[in-house]
Amino acid sequence: MAVHTFKYPYTFPLELGGELAGFQLAYTTHGTLNADGSNVLWVCHALTGNADPTDWWDGLVGNGLHYDPKDWFIVCANVLGSHYGSTNALSINHQTGAPYYRTFPDISIRDNIHAFELLREELGISHIHTLVGGSLGGQQAVEWAIIQPELIGDLVLIATNAVHSPWGIAFNESQRMAIKADPTWKEARPDAGAEGMKVARSIALLSYRNYDTYDFTQARDSNEQTENFRAATYQQYQGDKLANRFNAFSYWALSRMMDLHNVGRNRPSIIHALAQVKARTLVVGISSDILFPPSEQKFLTKHIPEAEYQEIDSLYGHDGFLIEYKQLRQILTSWEKKRSVVAS
């Protein structure tokens, strides 16, 4: 698998003001586009994901799996702001000749969809059979289905929402406060804010999981234990793990992107926006998700015409969409069979 690069050399205006003097998107494709272009599966990744869904969704996308490249032409693009090959804060600002660092502009979900549209046209894709995304990826998918209602046949939204909640924004702001508290954050260097980002990741994990998850997976070793608690070392490990593959600038930019998500912005209302979706839509919630609770997916289901709701019963909270592959495959298979019966 090779990561490709799409380069757009022209000025790219941004939704919230400002512009990029061109941009690039890293993307991957798996499988082959069929003769009539009817087998496109576009996958939208979550916050710290990359352009290869066989890497981070390896129980769902890949050879012999539910979304198999022998059946699908699978496309996934790395979002603007992420350092996995797309234009981001470590890219060169051509106006200054130096990296953007903290001057990188706010990038919205909508900006990314407009960028994806340019990539789609470059790839000669005129129809997306199935558009799927979870979390931040689901936010991208629902926005795209509103902007281009005729483009998408099937829409799968997992553990996501129509507007990011005050609760979610509070978690993200707490994480950015941790980054900002790192003294190196003020410095113009690629690893600025790295220690703060470790704390940010620790905060994020509390929202991705829940009380019962930690009670089950990070329990004390014994009643006599007084140090090296598994829950404590686990938080430290996850912070270090992210710092080894990500940077604080991208973490800041993408958490801001999530906060900005609101399909009702500059439209008559959120409900009116969701009513524009014409794709056959499956919405999947996770029973124990405290960050994107099932009520948010039920709201999507209520206001997207003829959408269907299914729920994963999981101990793992929001992260269930990256873990509960068996249940997710069962839900997808059942929905696709019903959709095929109706279509025939």
TrEMBL record:
Associated pathway: Amino-acid biosynthesis; L-methionine biosynthesis via de novo pathway; O-acetyl-L-homoserine from L-homoserine: step 1/1
Q: Name the EC number(s).
A: 2.3.1.31
Q: Which UniProt keywords apply?
A: Acyltransferase, Amino-acid biosynthesis, Cytoplasm, Methionine biosynthesis, Transferase
User: In the UniProt entry, which residues are flagged as the active site?
Assistant: 135 (nucleophile), 289, 318
Q: Give the transmembrane ranges.
A: none
**Family, as annotated:** Belongs to the AB hydrolase superfamily. MetX family.
Q: Which GO terms describe its cellular component?
A: cytoplasm
Q: Where in the cell is it found?
A: Cytoplasm
At the top level of its lineage, which domain of life is listed? Bacteria
Pfam families assigned: Abhydrolase_1
Gene symbol of the encoding locus: metXA
Record note on quaternary structure: Homodimer.
HAMAP family named in the record: MetX_acyltransf
Name assigned to this protein: Homoserine O-acetyltransferase
Residues binding substrate? 201, 319
Which InterPro entries does the entry mention? AB_hydrolase_1, AB_hydrolase_fold, HAT_MetX-like
Principal localisation: cytoplasm
